[in-house]
């Protein structure tokens, strides 16, 4: 299935959560934190007032509670407005 965001929305594939600490300890599923970075998969066309600054393939940082989680073909994605993105890295 192909997802095309509307207006100023962006579809992001979050980076995977860390499995081990720097010291080599495994992190249980209940203690894993959501990643705050991901790769842009699709971008909406923007609006008359908002020009899209991110593009497909960009790696971005976003807020902890930003976006709406959706599942497409068994893969978890986030869809959010461009304004919820903090930085392109």
Walkthrough of the structure:
- This protein is mainly β and 89 residues long.
- The chain has a single domain, classed as Roll (10 Kd Chaperonin, Protein Cpn10, Chain O), CATH 2.30.33.
- Helix content is 0%, strand content 37%.
- The chain has no helices and six strands.
- A six-stranded antiparallel sheet has the order 4-5-1-2-3-6, with no helix packed on it.
- The mean pLDDT is 87.
Helix-and-strand structural type: mainly beta
Low-confidence stretches: none
Largest sheet: 6 strands, antiparallel
Reading the helices and strands in chain order gives EEEEEE
Give the rounded overall mean pLDDT.
Answer: 87
Overall body shape: elongated
CATH homologous superfamily name? GroES chaperonin
CATH architecture: Roll
Could you name the CATH topology?
Answer: 10 Kd Chaperonin, Protein Cpn10, Chain O
Set out the fold topology.
Elements: E1 9-14, E2 37-43, E3 59-62, E4 68-72, E5 75-81, E6 85-88
Antiparallel strand pairs: 1-2, 1-5, 2-3, 3-6, 4-5
List its traits:
10 Kd Chaperonin, Protein Cpn10, Chain O; six-stranded antiparallel sheet; mainly beta; 0% helix; 89 residues
